[in-house]
Amino acid sequence: MNIQSVNSNQAETNSLISEAGSERTQYPYVTGTSVIGIKYKDGILMAADMGGSYGSTLRYKGVERVKPVGKHSLLGASGEISDFQEILRYLDELILHDNMWDDGNSLGPKEVHSYLTRVMYNRRNKFDPLWNSLILGGVKKGHKYLGLVNMIGVHFEDNHVATGFGNHLARPILRDEWHENLSFEDGVKLLEKCMRVLLYRDRSAVNKFQIAKITEEGATTYPPYALKTFWNFSAFQNPTVGAEGSW
Asked: For a pLDDT cut of 70, what percent of the chain falls above it?
């Protein structure tokens, strides 16, 4: 075997390795459903269930999808769980690098949200998106901040935000009942009302929820719990009544 043949074989091998290394995940595998965030009188409240769906199978029922970030922020995610874990690694590095300056300042929720918008848009431009919709809320120096960014980098700030099915089913409730002087107790009741509707209507939701809050004093994540439900609505018992041609 001559040298030219060896070099040719090596080039083909390197080409195959390069092609294998550039593969893209184009579909999420283990996913979480809706997250809801609202501003209330003292800070930010966030709620999400703890289900992780493998396709249409509710495979995991203990997945935490709301996490504190640094001193001032709270992050909630729907979508691919492994991509959410990767985002948390990015944020750990960001917060560590910020702390290394030791200048008495720390990143607030607005800065963290801005960073996430750049990360999501950058990955989208590489055709290798992080398959998540993220809610970032927090409080710094008395200013409450709540924003959302999706998997292609579209982002906005609002008084209440939701991802997934929550954007269609919970936001109308929030538009009707949210106000800026919500107490913590009223805020929790409003979130529970939204999550109950999602539990009834979203096949990927599970009746195991987690609520977290962040104020000037810091973040608090409460133990998971289940909501009381009622399944004897006539529409649930006979959903096809009056529907001609249905099964």
From this structure: 88
